[in-house]
Hints:
This protein is mostly helical. It is about 85% helix and about 0% strand. It is built from four helices and no strands.
Amino acid sequence: RENLRSDLDSKFTIIFHNYGLELTSVQETYEKFKHNPPIARNMPPVAGNIMWARHLLKRIEDPMRRFQGNSTVLSSKESKKIIKTYNKVARTLVAFEYLWNEAWSKSVDAA
Length: 111
C-alpha cells in the first residue's frame, strides 16, 4: 500500500513539473500578446481582451485545483517555485482583466 502511494506521488511530481512548464508557456503568451491579444473577429475589443485573459487564467487554474489536494507534491522546493510563478501569473491576469474593465467603465461614464 505504501509502495503504491510513493509511486503515485512520484508520478504526481512529474506531472506537476510539466504543469510548471505549461505555466511558463502561459506567462510567455501573456507577455507576447498583452498589448494586442488575439480576439475573435466579431468581438468587441474590451470583451475580447477580457475573454482572452480569462481563458489563460482558466488554463492555469484548473490543473492547480487538482494539485491542491496533494500536500506531498506541493511541499518540495521546486514546487514552491512553481506555486510562486502561478500566483504571479494569476495575479497579473486578474489585474489585466480589472484594468480593461475599469477603462471600459470610465469610458461609459464619460459618454
